[in-house]
């Protein structure tokens, strides 16, 4: 090596940490070997080498080496036995990848360097100082703060994830001291992850102030008596020796014995065949193709390399914990000062679990500082924020609008939040901004509307925001992003690359609490946010958001994105730590765009049909009213619970009456159903009347009011996080609860029609929950019946009652069907007796006989309850968790309810996951098949499409295949999934 050469030193252990913890788990398809860290390492190294060899980029290295930790035992352990004593062993999935990553380094034709007894940082320090002494330049590829003490005019650091160089100025900007004082700063602050003690109560900001005042650590300790703050002075005097010990632990050695000298680190040309052989052995197809193209090699002609999978002890692995856990494509930039308490340090957590805990502890006590919120009113300021978002690769955002209906709302403004204090335009720390775009002046509005002054032009602002919101390399964070996604799509912006904290929380804690931003803020940040009512009022005094004073709107909107970003920082590492990343990324996040597209499309209804049905329902309800009054012996308001209760239990003296907390008789649907089941006519008539009037008010009368004035279609809104099991629900209007077991309910579906030249296609999973039950409980009889295409209810009836399948009476099949579905929902003998209008003892005998014929179902139920009691949750076949914390309740009825729910959740939730997978895949499948079918609705186990007449024949098999294979490749179902599909002019005919 000579003067003018340039040495790149790669922190290999840091690369491993980023690759393993920042990316989803990955296994080799042929044998299930964990290779996620190897894949991430190879991709990062290839990009780094590709950029390094590109002379147009700027810096081109002449020498190159990858440095690893040899083991956790180093000379520092001899100095201080408690050093890194709190470290947990590397994850089991990572251990076999250590050796493969070293093999990867050699396959890249790069020096792979490690030295027993020393950490990678010491080796890097030794090489850096030797190269610098010769007059060469050095770039250390890492973001680890422990290496910042090495930075000089000729030694720089490079954060490859953020594409950011760290020189002397950047160290000073981040830590408040130059690189040569980083050792003393770390000695004062300590490191909880490495178990470096430091001095209690001293954080980075305080340490920087003390070093500026006293020069260095020795000067500070010698003059500690001069410190004015009593507590600080006492701490430093009491822990002076601890600080000196800490300095010995954090100071990097520059005299490590090296097996390879600097000349041996020359960057050699890539050995294409060798690298391709390794990549093919790892089964990394995409990277193999890239390398083959770059090296001009025929990958097909190269055999996979023969590799030995190292079964090394965890101790002989890289020191992962020295790396910066905040780095990586899915990790956060540094949190604001004060986010972990005064003068806290945010780097150094050892694993996702520890990072998650430290983040949760930190943000639970952090103060929300609204004083740094700003209003963006000019293009230059907006450009600064956009540039910062592009540089950091992360921004939180929210769209504020005039309505909660994204199909009709007008955009009032957009709020942004950044967390990297290196780039934040507003002066450091997490800060948020609001961009008012459509606010109006109240006075002007009375005269016909007027835009408030000093706002950016909406077209100009959106034109500038569009590139960053559509940039897949910039992660957008928000809460309930489907609203903003759909609203902005109407303005020509299709948001790409996003994380929704509502869905992250839903994956982590479904069943534990609400997923609203206010609930999450209180739960994780200990902060009660402003309410919309506080800002815009309510009732007659309420105004739309565009009428709210801009400064008031700014505080509300900026706080929302501030909170969303903080919650993201808390929850993101939990997904990795709890192995739920795949559930979030494959079942939840993709549904944002999928459902937004469906909501935007809407569906056509026939108002005339609804009007006619409304009249019919009114006539039938009137007839029921006459009968009800005759049975009651007087006229009364049927819709009044008080008057109805007085009639049933006061005047008529019917049994089973119970009063509510208000002192009124309970007339719930369950109470009326129970009375009707034992033969009381009046309650039965009231139940029927209620059903008719609800259909009329909820659907035939209300649906026309939901027709969009421009599209002339009805656009429902799907709720992604409102059920514990993962089922979707819909509102405004609710299209998932239209009853289909009654003639009137089916007639309502006839009003949902296709447009001219099209048909509606209904694709419905057949008995999917029973099929899932047969899969998870592994019931041989049910599996065989489904495999043979036998009618499952007839088969069950035959098994239980000894009746031949052929010629089976309908009533017998009906009873078996009620039991089949009832068992899934944990039905009791009482409930089954009500359904079948039989004695409770007979219903109990049915259930007992069912379990005798299918013992595996009883085993499944008992095992599921036991698992739920132990863990507090149950899981679907795809790993989704449904929490039931009250399953251990001392209240028998509460406990029993949670047990029934826990039994059902893996079945209903797995079915919900399967249809989600189908929905996410459907758009791509249709596009690939060059079909124009549009998915409009999802109703539990059914998908509704609108298809051109000419494409019906081609579309149906594609829909069926996609839905029936939806579980693959994640799960190979033990029973086949079956989809019934039909095309017709209206929904009822298609179903």
Report what the structure shows.
- Helix 15 packs parallel to helix 17.
- The chain is globular.
- A hairpin with a 5-residue loop joins strand 18 and strand 19.
- Helix content is 47%, strand content 10%.
- Among the domains are: 237 residues, 3-Layer(aba) Sandwich (Rossmann fold), CATH 3.40.50.1010; 207 residues, Ribonuclease H-like superfamily/Ribonuclease H (Nucleotidyltransferase, domain 5); 189 residues, 2-Layer Sandwich (Alpha-Beta Plaits), CATH 3.30.70.
- The chain is built from 38 helices and 22 strands.
- With 991 residues, it is of the alpha/beta class.
- The protein starts with 5 loop residues before the first strand and ends with a helix.
Outline of the structure:
The protein is an alpha/beta fold and 991 residues long. Strands 3-2-1-4-5-6 form a six-stranded mixed β-sheet.
Attribute tags:
22 strands, Alpha-Beta Plaits, 6-stranded mixed beta sheet, 47% helix, Nucleotidyltransferase, domain 5
> Which class of secondary structure composition applies to the elements?
alpha/beta
Architecture of the domain at 6-172 and 253-322, CATH level 2?
Answer: 3-Layer(aba) Sandwich
Question: What is the CATH topology assignment of the domain at 6-172 and 253-322?
Answer: Rossmann fold
Name of the CATH class of the domain at 6-172 and 253-322: Alpha Beta
Question: What order do the strands of the largest sheet run in, or round the barrel if closed?
Answer: 3-2-1-4-5-6
Radius of gyration equals 33 Å
How far the N terminus sits from the C terminus, by CA atoms, comes to: 77 Å
Main sheet characteristics: 6 strands, mixed
The number of strands is 22
**Fraction of residues in β-strands:** 5-15%
The CATH H-level superfamily of the domain at 6-172 and 253-322 is 5'-nuclease
């Amino acid at each position: 090596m000579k003067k003018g050469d340039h040495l790149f030193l790669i922190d290999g252990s840091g690369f491993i940490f980023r690759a393993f913890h920042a990316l989803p788990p990955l296994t080799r398809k042929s044998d299930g070997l964990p290779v996620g860290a190897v894949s991430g390492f190879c991709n990062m190294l290839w990009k780094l080498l590709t950029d390094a060899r590109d002379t147009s980029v700027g810096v081109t290295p002449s020498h190159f080496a990858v440095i690893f930790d040899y083991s956790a035992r180093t000379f520092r352990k001899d100095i201080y036995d408690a050093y890194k004593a709190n470290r947990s062993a590397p994850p089991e999935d990572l251990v076999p990848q250590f050796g493969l990553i070293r093999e990867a380094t050699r396959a890249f034709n790069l020096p792979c360097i490690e030295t027993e007894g020393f950490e990678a940082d010491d080796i890097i320090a030794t090489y850096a100082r030797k190269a610098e002494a010769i007059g060469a330049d050095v770039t250390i590829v890492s973001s680890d703060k422990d290496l910042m003490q090495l930075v000089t005019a000729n030694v720089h650091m490079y954060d490859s994830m953020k594409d950011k160089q760290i020189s002397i100025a950047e160290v000073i900007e981040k830590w408040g001291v130059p690189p040569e004082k980083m050792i003393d700063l770390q000695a004062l602050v300590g490191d909880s992850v490495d178990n470096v003690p430091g001095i209690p109560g001293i954080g980075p900001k305080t340490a920087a102030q003390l070093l500026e005042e006293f020069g260095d650590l020795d000067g500070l300790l010698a003059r500690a008596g001069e410190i004015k703050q009593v507590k600080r002075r006492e701490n430093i005097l009491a822990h002076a020796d601890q600080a000196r010990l800490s300095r010995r632990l954090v100071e990097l050695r520059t005299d490590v014995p090296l097996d390879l000298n600097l000349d041996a680190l020359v960057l050699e040309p890539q050995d294409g065949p060798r690298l391709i052989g390794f990549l093919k052995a790892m089964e990394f197809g995409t990277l193999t193709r890239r390398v083959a193209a770059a090296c001009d090699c025929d990958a097909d002609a190269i055999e996979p390399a023969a590799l030995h999978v190292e079964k090394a002890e965890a101790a002989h692995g890289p020191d992962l914990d020295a790396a910066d856990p905040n780095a990586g494509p899915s990790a956060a930039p540094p949190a604001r000062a004060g986010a972990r308490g005064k003068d806290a340090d945010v780097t150094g957590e050892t694993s996702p679990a520890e990072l998650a805990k430290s983040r949760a502890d930190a943000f639970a006590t952090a103060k929300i500082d609204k004083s740094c919120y700003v209003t963006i009113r000019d293009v230059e300021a907006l450009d600064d924020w956009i540039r910062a978002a592009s540089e950091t690769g992360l921004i939180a955002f929210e769209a504020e609008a005039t309505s909660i209906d994204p199909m009709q709302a007008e955009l009032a403004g957009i709020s942004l939040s950044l967390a990297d204090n290196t780039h934040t335009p507003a002066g450091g720390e997490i800060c948020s901004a609001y961009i008012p775009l459509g606010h109006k002046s109240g006075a002007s509005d009375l005269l016909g509307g007027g835009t408030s002054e000093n706002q950016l032009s909406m077209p100009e602002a959106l034109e500038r925001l569009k590139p960053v919101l559509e940039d897949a390399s910039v992660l957008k964070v928000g809460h309930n992003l489907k609203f903003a996604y759909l609203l902005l799509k109407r303005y020509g912006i299709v948001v790409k690359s996003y994380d929704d904290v509502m869905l992250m929380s839903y994956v982590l804690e479904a069943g534990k609490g609400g997923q609203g931003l206010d609930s999450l803020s209180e739960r994780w940040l200990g902060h009660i946010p402003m309410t919309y009512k506080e800002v815009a009022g309510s009732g007659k005094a309420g105004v739309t958001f565009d009428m709210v004073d801009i400064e008031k709107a700014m505080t509300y909107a900026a706080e929302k994105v501030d909170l969303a970003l903080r919650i993201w920082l808390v929850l993101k590492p939990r997904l990795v730590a709890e192995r739920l990343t795949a559930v979030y990324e494959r079942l939840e996040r993709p549904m944002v765009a999928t459902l937004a597209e469906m909501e935007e499309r809407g569906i056509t209804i026939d108002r005339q049909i609804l009007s006619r049905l409304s009249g019919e329902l009114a006539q039938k309800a009137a007839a029921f009213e006459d009968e009800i009054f005759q049975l009651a012996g007087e006229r009364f308001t049927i819709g009044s619970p008080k008057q109805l209760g007085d009639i049933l239990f006061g005047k008529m003296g019917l049994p089973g009456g119970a009063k509510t907390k208000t002192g009124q008789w309970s007339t719930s649907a369950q109470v009326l159903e129970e009375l009707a089941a034992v033969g009381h006519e009046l309650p039965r008539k009231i139940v029927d009347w209620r059903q008719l009037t609800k259909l009329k008010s909820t659907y035939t009368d209300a649906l026309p009011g939901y027709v969009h004035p421009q599209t002339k279609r009805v656009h429902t809104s799907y709720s992604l996080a409102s059920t514990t099991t993962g089922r979707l629900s819909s509102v405004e209007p609710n299209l998932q609860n239209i009853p289909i077991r009654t003639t009137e309910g089916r007639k309502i579906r006839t009003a949902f029609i296709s447009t001219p030249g099209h048909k509606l296609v209904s694709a419905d999973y057949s008995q999917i929950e029973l099929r899932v039950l047969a899969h998870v409980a592994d019931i041989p009889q049910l599996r065989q019946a489904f495999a043979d295409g036998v009618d499952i209810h007839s088969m069950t009836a035959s098994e239980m009652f000894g009746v031949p399948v052929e010629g089976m009476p309908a009533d017998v099949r009906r009873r078996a069907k009620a039991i089949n579905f009832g068992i899934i929902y944990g039905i009791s003998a009482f409930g089954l007796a009500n359904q079948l209008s039989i004695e409770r003892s007979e219903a109990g005998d049915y259930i007992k006989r069912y379990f005798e014929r299918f013992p595996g179902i009883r085993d499944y139920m008992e095992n599921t309850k036991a698992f739920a009691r132990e863990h507090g949750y149950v899981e679907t076949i795809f790993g989704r968790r449904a929490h039931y914390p009250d399953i251990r309740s001392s209240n028998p009825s509460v406990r029993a309810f949670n047990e029934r729910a826990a039994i059902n959740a893996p079945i209903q939730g797995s079915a919900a996951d399967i249809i989600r997978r189908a929905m996410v895949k459907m758009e791509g499948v249709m596009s690939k098949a060059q079909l124009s079918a549009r998915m409009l609705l999802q109703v539990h186990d059914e998908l509704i499409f609108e298809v051109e007449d000419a494409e019906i024949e081609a579309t149906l098999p594609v829909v069926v295949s996609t839905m029936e294979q939806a579980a693959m490749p994640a799960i190979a179902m033990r029973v086949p999934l079956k989809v019934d599909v039909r095309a017709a002019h209206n929904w009822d005919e298609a179903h």
